[in-house]
Amino acid sequence: MAKLPDADRVARARAGTVHIRGEDRPFAELTADHARAQASELKDAGTFGPLQRVAKVAMAWGELARLMDRAGAATVGDLDDETLVLWAERVWVIPPEEGLI
Q: Is the pLDDT at 26 greater than 80, yes or no?
């Protein structure tokens, strides 16, 4: 059984922001379309950052959009706390508890 995230990590994930389409947006308010836009932006980033990490994060944003579509979640905040924290870590809104991957 997975360890449930503590309230602080849930709060940090909900309060986190992501820069999409020229503005900072609260992570918990992002839609699947926002996640797809972020995936596309990172795929087009060229030499931005360590390319392997950028590619992994871009892929994670795309996976988050598909998850939201399947779950019928209007926003990331509609996901349960455990899923919210997991994806906040995967897309680097908050650092993973285990440290850098």
A: yes
